[in-house]
């Protein structure tokens, strides 16, 4: 019961923190609460892929999610990640007609996802201009994330991309130990595992990192920042 109360409190915290929430009528708030649920996903499971059932508007209660494109040849391009508290409408293509490209969402860790059902969210955006503006502002923010990713792929060398990723993980977690495999890192920075392995060997030679099975330890954070 305590866990359920804690989860309900977290749900309400996320809902009430949405920019349009204070502009809803009480009946609209009750309607959204009634049509909101929590979905649990195990690490590695697919949360959403184009062509699957439309989820609706989502918010990450716990865990992290990787959003990516998948080519016909099976190559993945990571667009961005969603962390605790992050909202997303890419899983609501049936609601937002402007979403015309195929995306996939996978749980990087065990995840709890707050979901406002698609039909309810569609009705809300039709009735409330603040909710509609929120959708377009969120889409703009995600578009900026995607453009930054494309810029990195097209113009940044692998040493900068890898060093930047390691530093962002260090800043995010506060730990010098990055507990990810080289394959996972390669997916995050849109490269191949073999290429990442070669660059890590260079970083080891320059005394920037240490590498063991499934763990990369940052030895020289400032050196990585300079890269």
Architecture overview:
A hairpin with a 5-residue loop joins strand 4 and strand 5. The longest helix is centred in the middle third of the chain and has 27 residues, at 129-155. The chain is an alpha+beta fold and 227 residues long. It has eight helices and eleven strands. A four-stranded antiparallel β-sheet has the order 1-8-3-6. A four-stranded antiparallel β-sheet has the order 2-7-4-5. Strands 9-11-10 form a three-stranded antiparallel β-sheet. The chain has helices at residues 2-17, 26-34, 118-127, 129-155, 158-173, 182-188, 193-205, 221-226, and strands spanning 36-41, 46-49, 56-62, 65-70, 76-82, 87-88, 104-107, 111-117, 177-178, 209-212, 215-218. The mean pLDDT is 87.
Write the layout of secondary structure elements.
Elements: H1 2-17, H2 26-34, E1 36-41, E2 46-49, E3 56-62, E4 65-70, E5 76-82, E6 87-88, E7 104-107, E8 111-117, H3 118-127, H4 129-155, H5 158-173, E9 177-178, H6 182-188, H7 193-205, E10 209-212, E11 215-218, H8 221-226
Antiparallel strand pairs: 1-8, 2-7, 3-6, 3-8, 4-5, 4-7, 9-11, 10-11
Features:
11 strands, 227 residues, 8 helices
Instruction: Provide the gyration radius in Å.
Output: 19 Å
Largest sheet: 4 strands, antiparallel
- Compute the average pLDDT: 87
User: What is the distance, rounded to the nearest whole angstrom, between the alpha carbons of the first and last residues?
Assistant: 50 Å
Chain oligomer state = single chain
Succession of helices and strands: HHEEEEEEEEHHHEHHEEH
Low-confidence stretches: none
- Residue fraction in strands: 15-25%
The count of strands amounts to: 11
Number of alpha- plus pi-helical segments: 8
Helix content: 40-55%
